[in-house]
Amino acid sequence: MVVKRHRFVSAMFGSDKIRSQHDLTCQQRATLMIQTFCILLTLNVVGPPVVEDLNVLDGGNPNGPTWIDWSDPGLMLVHHLNGLTRECLASREDEVSKLKTAEEWKARQIKVRQTLDQILGPWPDRSPLNPRVTGKLRKDGYQVEKIVFESMPNFFVTGALFIPEGLNEPRPAILKVIGHSASAFRRDLYQNVILNLVHKGFVVFAIDPLGQGERLQYFEPKTGKSTVGSATREHSHAGVQCFLTGRSIARYFIWDGIRAIDYLTTRPEVDPNRIGVTGLSGGGTQSSYIGAVDERVLAVAPTGFITSISRLLGSIGPQDAEQVFYHGPMLGIDHADLLEVRAPKPTLQVTTTRDFFSIQGARETAAEVHHAFQIFGHPERFDQVEDDFGHGFTKQNNESTYEFFQTFLALPGSAEEQLHPFLTEAELTVTETGQVSTAFEGENVFSINRREAKPLLERLEESRRDLDQHLPQALSEAARLSGYRNPDAAVAPVFRGQYQREGYRVEKWGVPGEGETILPTLVFAPDEPGTRSAIIYVHGEGKTTDAAAGGKIEELVRRGYVVAAPDLLGYGETTYKFRQGHSPVQPFFNALMSGRSVAGINAGDAVRVMEFLQNRDDVKPDQIGAIAIGDVGPALLHATAMEQQIQWLVLVDSLLDYQSIVNHELYGVNANSLVAGALGAYDLPDLLASITPRRVAVVQPRTHQQETATNDQIASSLGFVQTHAKDRLRVETEATDLLKLVHWCVAP
Questions:
Q1: Which segments constitute the Acetyl xylan esterase domain (predicted)?
Q2: Is residue 644 pLDDT above 90, yes or no?
Q3: Cα torsion for 61, 63, 64, 70, to the nearest 10°?
Q4: Can you list the domains of the chain with their CATH numbers?
C-alpha cells in the first residue's frame, strides 16, 4: 500500500491549522514549522526534487546501474527477427543435408527454380527491345557503342558495349553488372575490369542498374540529384512500394540482365553459347541472381556479395531492397541456392577476407556449394577465391576472374591484369541529357508497380461490395500476411520500481513480448483503491512522450483510468539505432524475409499488454481500450481487429491507408508500420470496418507524406467504412481533446 505523504502531513496537523497559519503567534508558527520539518525529514521528502527516470530497460543513465539482461534494447527487435529467419533457414539446411545423389539435387534445383519464379514473378513478357545506338567511340584496341534498349515497354536501360578490334569470328561475351556507385560502370574501378576483359578479347556489355548512372528513378532536374538519396535509398524507396504488392524489386534488376543477354545474342560479334556474368557488390548480387535464373549463362563470377543469410543477419543485416527476396528464407532460399541451382555449370565465388559481407558465411556457403558440384561429378567447375582485403576488387581476385572466364568460355590467354587508360564520364554518357527520365518519355519502377497494383486494388474494391463475406476473409488474410500470432501463455512481468505523484503512481514494468523480448512499460495507476477501466496508450515517439506530470496521460489517470504505456518493439527505448550506411528500413526487410511484419509482431505484443492489464487487481478486465498516436497506429489497428477484448480504439495521426504509398511516387512513412503483400488482400480501412460494432475514433489521419488527410482523401479511403460503421466510427480532421474521444468511445 502506498501512503500519500502530503495527505499524511495534512492529517497530522489538520488542514484548517495549516491554512490558518497567518492567525498564529510567531512562537506558534515557529513551533509548527519545526514540527513539520521534523516529520518531513522522517518521511524523506526534504531535499532536491526527485528526477524521474522513466526508462525501464537500460536505466537511461550512463552513470547509473544497468540491467545486464536488457542492456541493448535497440537491438532486441532485430535479434528477434533474426531468430525467426534462422528458424526458416534451419528447415532448409535440414533438407539440403539429406541430399546424397545427383537425382536428389536435380529435384532440389527444380524446386528452387520454381520458388524463384514464385518470389520474383510474374515475369514480364519479352517485348521488343527497340535498341538504339546513341554514339560510338574508337579507342586503342577496341571500340564502344553506347546503347539504349527497353527491357519492358518504355522502360529504358542504358549501357555501353565494348567490342575488341579485329574480330573475325563470334567471341564470348560478359555482361558486366554494377554495384552501388552513382556513376555506375563509368567509375574507374569498374572500367578497370571492363577494359581488361575487352583487351583479352571478350565482348563486354556494361549496363546501368536502377537508381544509378543514367537511370535515377527519382531524378530532380533542378538539382541534378535524386530526391530520395543514394542508390541504396533509391532501391529501398521503390522496393517498399513493390513489397506492398507482394513483389520483390529484385525482379527488375534480374529482368534488365536477362534482356541485356537477349540483346547480346542479337549481335554478330557474340557467341550466344558462351555468355558470362560478373559484378561487384550490388553487381555481385545481380550476377548471382541472373546466373541462377537465366540458363543461358554458362559461367558466372559474383564478387563481394555471396555469404549466407544467417551470417548476413548477424553482421550488417540486409542492405537494401535489391538484396531482399520477398519471403525468400521462409520459402527455403539462401545464398547457396543461387549457385547450387546452376550446378554443374562453371561458377566462381569471389570474396575478400575483410569484406562487410561475412567471410565466414562465404566460406560456409562455398563448402556447401562445392559438395553439390562434387555430387554432380564436376568439382572443378566451382571454386571460391579470396584475397586479404576489404569490400572491393583486388588485382589477385580480378586475375582469378579473368582466368575463370578464359578457361570456361574457351578464350585462352594471359590472365595478368594490365593498366589501361580510362574513359571520361562524359565519353560514356549514353543519353542526350544524361538521364533517361529527361531524355525519354518512359516508365520507372514506381509507375510499373502502380500499374501492376491497380488490378489488386480493383479486386479489393470489388470484394468490399459484400462486407459480410469480405471482412472475415480480409481479417484472416491480415493475420497471415502480417504474421500476427495470438500470444502464448503469459510469462510473469518484471517490476522495476515506481515514482509517486500526486494522486497516482508511475510503475515501471518489463512486460514479456513475443519470444525472448521485453516491452518496457509504464503503468499509471490511481492511488484510490478499487477496480477501474484501463487504457493501452502507445505513442510512436515512445512511452515517455506524454508521460510527464500534467501531460495527457495524467489527464486520463485523474479521470480514474489505469493507463499502460508500452514501448512496442522498434519504438521508444527499443528503437533500432541505425548505423552509418545501414538502411532505415532494415527491420521491415528482416521481418518480411520470414513471412512476418513488425506491425504484426507489435499487434501481438499490444494484446500481451492488454492481458497484463487484465491480470491486475485494479483493472476491470472487460473494460480495456486503446489509444495509438503516430506510427504505431497500424499496429494497434491490427491488434484491435484481431482481439475482440480490446473494447475501443482511438487513432491519432495514424496512416490512413497503404494504397496511397503505391499510388504516389514519393512517400514518407515509417516502414515498420507496413505489411508486405497486404494490398493483395486488405488495407487498413478493412481493419477499421472489421472492428465494428466496437467504437473507433480516427483523429487527423495521415497521408503517404505524413500530412493531415483532406476530407476528400478521407472519403475516398474510408467511405465504405463510414457507411458500414455508421455512428460507431468517428473521424476528426482537427485536433480533438482525448478525454472527449475516450468518453465517446466508452459511452453506451
A1: 144-303
A2: yes
A3: 60
A4: 93-413 (3.40.50.1820), 467-746 (3.40.50.1820)
